[in-house]
Design a protein that fits this description.
3 helices; single chain; five-stranded mixed β-sheet; alpha+beta
């Protein structure tokens, strides 16, 4: 494979696949989501994390390795919009990395916080 998109809800398996990709220097984008019920409403965060041969020192800090029992994601079937947004953010990042869109930030980790509508870019690739 020359590029991989990951969307796996079992973090233990995700970790094994990511380690395999890193060992073979295969670039990837991993997406994740945490959703919880607070005061009868859903809150949470979407995550898009990139791993490449050049930038991967952030992966083990950004991608969860253990499974979370308190995540209400699996019990809420009406969040297709969040899955769609997460996939769209991943494809946009891939297109930026491919040169289709300009990428001034070169972030390797992006989160979207649902309840405050905030996108946060972090772990920027060093450009020397």
């Amino acid at each position: 494979m020359s590029y991989v998109f990951l969307c796996i809800d079992r973090n233990g398996i995700r970790k094994k696949i990511i380690n395999h990709l890193l060992n073979r220097e295969v670039p990837f984008i991993d997406v994740g989501m945490g959703v919880n019920v607070v005061d009868d409403s859903l809150i949470g965060t979407l995550r898009v994390t990139v791993g490449t041969k050049v930038k991967n020192d952030h992966i083990h800090f950004r991608v969860p390795e253990g499974d979370f029992l308190d995540n209400d994601y699996s019990t809420n079937i009406q969040i297709a919009d969040l899955n769609s947004l997460n996939a769209t953010l991943a494809v946009i990042k891939w297109k930026k990395m491919s040169g289709f869109y300009q990428d001034l930030e070169k972030e390797s980790h992006c989160t979207y916080s649902i309840n405050v509508a905030q996108l946060q870019n972090e772990d920027k690739e060093d450009t020397l």
